[in-house]
Amino acid sequence: MPSLxxxxxxxxxxxxxxxxxxGRQAGPSKFVVxxxxxxxxxxxxxxxxxxxxxxxxxxxxxxxxxDIIQFQFSNGNHTVTQSAAESPCQPLQATVxxxxxxxxxxxxxxxxxxxxxxxxxxxxxxMFLYCATGPHCQEGQxxxxxxxxxxxxxxxxxxxxxxxxxxxxxxxxxxxxxSIPLEVAAFVPAPAEAAAPPAAPPAAEAPAAExxxAEAPAAEAPAAExxxxxxxxxxxxxxEATPAPAA
Length: 247
Ligand SMILES: [Cu+2]
Description:
5 helices; globular; 19% strand; alpha+beta; binds copper (II) ion
């Protein structure tokens, strides 16, 4: 009896899996791109690079030969660089001269155009891509074109996370660097950082009441990882002696 019951459980487990998978694919709208992209060729497939998070969206694309993947570079400074499957975060360019590399393409607050890298798909082979900026690759900024199974992107991301450091590509290869107007881009830029705080206030006491507007958004700005963008908005009064009664 127990064995029959466990057999039943097994059967249920087996049949449940496909529907789980289907549910996953049907999930967020960004993955709809993947489903629509399988049949015909000669389409432009947008992929957003960076933004509020250092990722590719979507990070799995099924493309036909003749399609063009248009990487649209959002906030930060990123690349699209091809690696071998087993060597994430390392440029395949080092051994294969035709391997993809976009170069570094930034997006800064206030930009009205968006840098793009238009990559024609010339082969149906699986292609492994990463961002070569800083630790972005280790942090998960990787993607796959034409994966052979659903697990591949996870394996690639895990391998990337375990890799030591990224290496940069050297030459822009495999696509065209261009730009599009921001209003037709596939993303809304991350909120601009608060404007630089006003020059040092002459009086130490006055500004406290005047500045509540400037302080709130600055703390929320998600740009902690962007190199060279240190916003020091917290104005600490010179006097430290403030015996706080609270523990
Ligand atoms: Cu990046």
